[in-house]
Amino acid sequence: MHIEVRQVHLRSLKEFASHYLMIVLSILTALGLEAWIEHVHHQHAAAEATANIEAEIRENLVHVKESRDHDFSRMHALEKIRDGLVADLKAHASIVDINRHIHEADPDGLYLDWRWPSLRREAWDVAVANQSAGWINSDRLRRYSSIYAAQASESAIIIQDTSSVFSGQRMADILVDMQMDDYQPRELLRVVNQMAGAASEAGHGLDILATRMDAALSNGADSDAHKLASN
Q: Model's pTM, two decimal places?
């Protein structure tokens, strides 16, 4: 900020005081205007960041719920096959009958296909990088932060949990043996049970994440509605 003081000849103390007051008022006005412009800029940046983050979270939530529903669908299909295998083993069914029952339970064949979506965070990273996140309301910022933290933590948990209940190589081997009608039904039962467990872990992990995201977004909507009502 630069203020150029006009050169004048002061003839009295009163004139000096008047001139001094004008300079002070000019400086204060300039500072106030600069602060107001900066405040408007911060508000605009915060509003833009908020809109981008909200859109990103809601898009992620859609993908989370879609993958969750898919994983639960696979879990139920695999559980149906597993329960059928248990019944066939107890009845000492032949391989031919077991294969037929598996096909009847799931005509598309025996497969796992559990899904975990790629969850975006570009809007959040940009807001942090350009410091506009610091101008967002603290309650709202805390909710956003909790959502992105939940995305990261649940992704890490699902990798750990599925690896503890599922062996991909074991599944690949038994599926090859099934194509040649040369497998042990009890071994197949154990693998299918693992497959159902992996789909269950993924589905429940996504369900937990969806619940946390929904709750954070709902709390924000309730808070905004309360502020509007107060005003």
A: 0.76
